[in-house]
Structure formats: structure tokens, C-alpha cells
Amino acid sequence: MNHFGEELAVAVRRCRNPVVVGLDPRWESLPASFRQNRASDTESQAIAYEEFCREVVDVVAPLVPAVKPQAAFFEECGPAGMLALANVMAYARDKGLLVILDGKRNDIGSTAEAYARGYLGRSSVWGADALTISPYLGADSLQPFVDVAVERGAGLFVLVKTSNPGGGMLQDQLIDGQPLYRTVAQYVADQSAGATGQGGYGSVGAVVGATYPDQLAELRAAMPNTWFLVPGYGSQGGTAKDTAAAFDAQGLGAMINNSRGIIFAHQRPEYKDSFGDSRWQGAVEAATEDMIAQLQAETAVGKLGSSDSP
């Protein structure tokens, strides 16, 4: 029986880093070669997105444990975009990557169960190893996802303390003297602790932003059995040092996402002159390797693969 929390630990140890490359294709940011001689209609965009993401995967598959396709950019292209998303996910799986689908789904009852059964597990029609979900309809909306994830050995990442500036409007509201995000965190922690793998981590994880390093440390202490998916690194201002508190002493426990900062690295000042559009894949590789090196230098990730790491 698969166990996502354990599979994630194995993949992170194998790669000696916890980097997740976000696949967030945007038409205006694609290298020129993907836009030239193409109409900008949604079907053409979808084809370009699939080609681009496949070529990103070719670069990062030997380097990192997981990718995170963002469903919204594919959905924007309609049916052709959804087919492109399915093809990209299958391609990434075939390359040995874990696939975390960023869909932030939720609903109640049978609808939540339908989302879960459609997306979760490699036996599902979408074949996602894990899915991001929203908690704000309450525990009865989350339980169908948890049940299917456990049944299929898949994973979940529940929005707890997100990286965006406006997240505090709800997440920081005090309920019985504590912020709402702590109530959500307790639910996730309980689910994680209830079904841990050999490494001590469960398959129900939490989304906690790198842009709030104090809360990241607070939540790591409160959720010792929970994998964190950490957005906000790079383009949103989060640094390797900001993520340090997300990890346990062995360098496990957190996956650090970087989307635009890697896939569109050819546009960043530090890579533009050396690579540019014509060598955009080289920029992707350089940005990925630089991120790995920064995490290894600034966090416990540097202990992965050491002789005292289990």
C-alpha cells in the first residue's frame, strides 16, 4: 500500500533536496520560440503550455522530487487546456516525479468525494499524487478527501497559513483566543498523526507560506507529524533562510515551491544575459541548482544524505 508521506520522504532523501517546481505557464512569459508563428487563441496556448511544461520537466526531473502544476492556467484555456494538464501530469509521473496538483478544491458531501475520487491517487483519472484543498467549508467537507487519500495512499495539502498578504483577513481572526489558522492547523495535525509512515510523517499536509517565517516556526512546533508545502519562495519575497524553521533536524518535513523563479528564470536579471530566450532551459537548470544550494546552505536540508541522516 502506498503512503504519500513516506514516498515524499524517500524522494526528498534521494534528491537531497525538497524543491517543488511549480508549473504555472503564462502566455506572455513563455520563451519566444513557443509563441512565434502561433495564434494566441486558447487552443494554441494550451498546446504551447504542454510543450513548455514537458521541456521544463525534462530539465528538473533529475534534480528535484516533485512538480506542482497549477490547474488555473490550464483551465483558462478550456477543454484543450485540461487535456494539456492531464498530459503534463502523466509526463511528469513517467519521468519519476511526484505530482502535486494545485487545484485548491473543496465542497460538501458527495461533491467533495467526487473531487477526491477524480483527482487523488495514481489509479484515478487525473492521477495526482497529492492535491491542495481549502478548509473553509469545515471538517465534513475535508473528511471525504482524507478518506480517499488514505484509501489510495495519496496526499493532501490543506491551506493553513497562506503566503498572500490578504490571507490574514480570515486566517488571523481570533476564535476563542487563538487565530483561526491554529484551529485549521490542529485539524490537520490530528489527521497527520493518525496515519504516519515509518518516518513519522502523515499524508495530510499543510500549506504554510515562506512569507510568514514566525508562523512557520510556530506551526512546525504545533504540527510535528505534518508535511508542509511552502509557497512564497522567490518571486513573493521568501528566502531560503525564511523557510529554515519548516524543517525538522534531519532536513525533512517541508517542500519548498518555486514557480516563476524557476520556469521563467531566463527573464531574471541574474540569468538573462547568460541564457536568455534561446537557452531558457539552461536558465531553468541554473535556477533550480541555485535554489537547492541555497536551501542546503541556509537550512537543515544540508543534512540530507549525510552519514548521520537515516
TrEMBL record:
Protein's recorded name: Orotidine 5'-phosphate decarboxylase
GO BP: 'de novo' pyrimidine nucleobase biosynthetic process; 'de novo' UMP biosynthetic process
Enzyme Commission number(s) of this protein: 4.1.1.23
Keyword presence, Lyase: yes
PANTHER family according to UniProt: OROTIDINE 5'-PHOSPHATE DECARBOXYLASE
The keyword Lyase is assigned to this record: yes
Lineage: Bacteria, Pseudomonadati, Planctomycetota, Planctomycetia, Pirellulales
HAMAP family in the cross-refs: OMPdecase_type2 (MF_01215)
Family: Belongs to the OMP decarboxylase family. Type 2 subfamily.
Orotidine 5'-phosphate decarboxylase domain segment(s): 18-275
Pathway field: Pyrimidine metabolism; UMP biosynthesis via de novo pathway; UMP from orotate: step 2/2
Reactions this protein catalyses: orotidine 5'-phosphate + H(+) = UMP + CO2
MF term (GO), any: orotidine-5'-phosphate decarboxylase activity
Naturally occurring in which organism (per UniProt): Bythopirellula goksoeyrii
Broad class of enzyme this protein falls into: lyase
PROSITE patterns per record: OMPDECASE
Active site: residue positions: K104
Protein's gene: pyrF
